[in-house]
Amino acid sequence: MIQLTGNTLTIHEAKRVLFDNETVEISAKSMEKVIASRQAVERIVKDERVVYGITTGFGKFSDVYINSENVEELQLNLIHSHACGVGDPFPEVVSRAMLLLRANALSKGYSGVRPVIIDTLIQFLNAQIHPVIPQQGSLGASGDLAPLSHLALALMGEGEVFYQGEKVDASKALADANIQPVTLQAKEGLALINGTQAMTAMGVVAYIEAEALAKQSELIASMTIEALRGIIDAFDEDVHIARGYQQQVDVANRIRQYLSDSQLVTKQGELRVQDAYSLRCIPQVHGASWQALDYVKEKLEIEMNAATDNPLIFNDGEKVISGGNFHGQPIALAMDFMKIAIAELANISERRIERLVNPSLNDLPGFLSPEPGLQSGAMIMQYAAASLVSENKTLAHPASVDSIPSSANQEDHVSMGTIASRHAYQILLNSRRVLAIEMICAMQGVEFRGVENMASLTKEFYHQGRRIVSSIVKDRVFSKDIEALSAWLCAKRE
User: Fold this and answer.
1) Handedness of CA 263, 267, 270, 276 (dihedral sign)
2) Catalytic entry in 52, 110, 425, 462
3) Of 324, 399, 325, nearest in space to 139 by CA
């Protein structure tokens, strides 16, 4: 059971909820803050105070006063009008992450919602009811308005959800799970949609998978080193301590551990004096990606526990301030940084693939073919990797440098952070396929060298991989192998 406090949620805990379906509850202390905050909202409505989003319209309509008898209609209209998402839905696990992160943010007690709103979000999580949320339509400022409006629709019993492996009407899923739909009251619609939970949820899922892929990339690279009889001296600890980056030192240490008892690696001057950069500089390149991922993790864990609503309610309603915590710039920059970090893992992997298949660069059979000439072997797998790497380069263009004004120029600078997070995830998918291709080629390469000569750890990884993709003894439809191994890497998150 994960207990939400609004302040302590970690990536590790989120992983347990998202991928292991661990249940969730709100802490009693946090619920006390939620109740006090709600009482402040009700006093504002009763006293007919002019407070943005509670007794006024939204955006450019912030100067329009709304009478107390119309506040529920105001919230309903807000959700209906803002549910403008388009395109394919977010992956179901991302929708689940949005529920988790929104419940956690509201648990801070700054948003003025009734306890029933948080309770319903948690009921959705624990019953594994996940709103169908279109991916496109958010500017990443003023909150992820369009995506989160689709989440709010589901809480109201409208729209569609994923439930028990099917896409069904939200009303049906709620009835089957014995969950009552909510009727939004003052401020609650705004509290649900004014936040960065779409970009952050996508970012959390992308980070969890990227962290696993970065670890896998080192094992795959180690197998490639064996297939190419790489020089182990380049991974000597003194070399990397001399540079000073801890992540680089750590990568080199892991490579040495993976290859500690290998009979396939060589020493300087034994076969050649130096390896190409794609082998020799693995710690430097992969280590730099780890530096970026560490930065991303730090920002995500801050944002996961951030109050991103507007307005925020302090001091039992004595201080209600309209600010800009909904602006997604910190996550937008982090997602753009993650895009580059993951893309580079694929970039250097594709260069290692080339060294595995190019007979001009090694002493292996051309394109690892069982019958060079008659059979093409891994020739076109390198093409596919090159295509994916090239696509990553276009996706890696920073989304955060763009901004288009909205709401009649009231909202005149936006982050595009949700676009950045979506592109980061696509780069991740592409990069995993590139690394799957490298693994297929590396497994074939070590077979020519002698699997019995491999290091213990890489040999075990080889045998695991061979249970998914068989040895290339004849040309076949390699697309199936690439997708199967990519799916296996995805599922193998530890």
Assistant:
1) positive
2) 52
3) 399
Q: Where are the alpha helices (DSSP H) in 415-466?
A: 417-449, 456-466
Distance CA 31, CA 396 (A): 41
| Amino acid identity at 120 | T
Q: Where are the domains of the chain?
A: 2-195, 203-491
Q: Is 251:282 a contact under the CB 8 Å cutoff?
A: yes
Which tens digits make up the pLDDT trace of 111-134? 999 999 999 999 999 999 999 999
Closest CA to 306 of 196, 416, 191: 196
Rounded CA separation 32/473 (Å): 66
pTM recorded for the entire structure: 0.96
Closest to 142 measured CA to CA, from 198, 73, 86: 198
CB 424 within 8 A of CB 201: no
Q: Which residues contact 211 (CB under 8 A, 6 or more apart)?
A: 293, 297
Q: Is residue 362 within 8 Å of 228, Cβ to Cβ?
A: yes
Let me know: does 126 contact 20? Beta carbons within 8 Å.
Answer: no
Task: Give the DSSP H/E element, type plus range, for residue 219.
Answer: helix 197-227
- Distance between CA atoms of 372 and 367, rounded to whole angstroms? 7
DSSP letter assigned to residue 422: H
DSSP strand pairing (86-89 vs 24-26):
unpaired
CATH superfamily placement of domain 2-195? Fumarase/aspartase (N-terminal domain) (1.10.275.10)
Q: What angle do helix axes 478-491 and 197-227 make, rounded to 10 degrees?
A: 120
**pLDDT tens readout for residues 247-257:** 999 999 999 99
- Enter the CATH code of domain 203-491: 1.20.200.10
Mode of pairing for the β-strands spanning 160-163 and 2-4 = unpaired
Task: Mark whether 52 is an active-site residue.
Answer: yes
pLDDT for 295 beyond 70 = yes
d(CA 411, CA 363): 61
Q: What is the pLDDT of residues 79-100, one digit of tens each?
A: 999 999 999 999 999 999 999 9
How far apart CA 346 and CA 349 sit, in angstroms, is: 5
